[in-house]
Amino acid sequence: MSERRNGFVTGGTWCVDRNKLLEFWPSEDGIARILAVEQRGGGSGCNFAVDIRKLDPTMAVATIGLVGDDEDGRFLIAEADAHGIAREHLAVTAEAPTQYTEAYGSLKTGRRTHLYFQGTAALLTPEHFTGLERMEGRILHLGLPGVHPAMDMPWGETANGWVVVLRQAQAAGFRTSLELVSLGPERIAMLGQPCLPYLDYLIVNDIEIGGLSGEATIRHAGTNLNAVERAVRTVAALGPMEFVVAHFPTGAIAATRDGMLIRQPSLNVPAKEIIAANGAGDAFAAGTLYAVHQGWSVSDALVLGHAAAAASLRGLSTTGAVGTWQECLALARRWGTRESL
Question: Per residue in 280-290, pLDDT tens?
């Protein structure tokens, strides 16, 4: 049924990102100069939707979320309209101000640090998703567990609200994808594991796959590739997912339902092109799932995922530097990939 549907629906986090590029991230009581400031939409619901529309301006994208009846909420509604995202189910409330994030990027390291104000995120519940059965689209991309307290809580006899929405989406004919946030491993496991039986695709980073699997995927020297490989295999066995992907700065490792394991290096992005890593994970997920939607192989989908992520590194905001899928692949051809994983 889902193969006869087209397009995407994003659900969950819509927030305002107040992006700031610093010379470096200071220690407590320290000081650092702000080099650039840019305000954009943020959060998984916004970022993924905008990225898909930038990869392919003809692709239908709708969204479900909650914003405040305030200046920030109106800013996000304008962002949705500017990118052609259907927002009939982007609800507005006067009960809380719009969620926002102070997003800091370090020019020295390329790393990011996020400080967020919860606001409307605290009010999102499964009831905001009751219109799913009337929506068109093939893939629902949902997030973020750990950011929305009411969604994180048990809902009736169900482990949490995320499971409720994923079940509802599958019953309505959607393929499902869940985006996580890099919390502590116990919290990731508690919120994420109950969702796995109701997912078709899972795309997470090396920290999050470690939390879901119980593997120590991060060591002092960085990502432990062998541990990530074990982790994606472990998580793939916990649900009927078509594939599980873990991405990290040097590449991605995927395990498919039919037992195939794929290691795909990331692009060899010139250091002078990198502004900030904020949004690279969203761009990777968007590129990968766009390719899957279009019928590409998992291997080719990972190539586009890395290309979209690399394109996003050129901008301060989460989505500003992402281009069409053809432009992203042109970057991949120009820059090439890192050495094999």
Answer: 899 999 999 99
* Burial classification of residue 226, based on how many CB atoms lie within 10 Å of its CB (0-12 exposed, 13-18 middle, 19 or more buried): exposed
Asked if the structure places residue 286 within a domain, the reply is yes
Q: What's residue 2's pLDDT? A: 55
What CATH number has the domain bearing residue 292?
3.40.1190.20
Domain membership of residue 341 (yes or no) is no
- Give the model's pLDDT for residue 111: 81
Q: How distant, in Å, are the alpha carbons of 51, 62, 130, 150, 169 from that of 251?
A: 20, 30, 37, 34, 30
Residue 107 lies in a domain: yes
Domain count, the chain: 1
Q: What is the pLDDT of residue 1?
A: 47
Whole-angstrom distance, CA of residue 199 vs CA of residue 174: 10
Provide the residue range defining the domain that includes 138.
2-335
User: Is pTM, for the whole model, over 0.85?
Assistant: yes
**Residues of the chain under the 50 pLDDT cut:** 1
Q: What's the pLDDT tens digit per position in 174-213?
A: 999 999 999 999 999 999 999 999 999 999 999 999 999 9
- Cβ(309)–Cβ(317) below 8 Å: no
Q: What is the pLDDT of residue 215?
A: 95
* Residue 340 within any structural domain of the chain: no
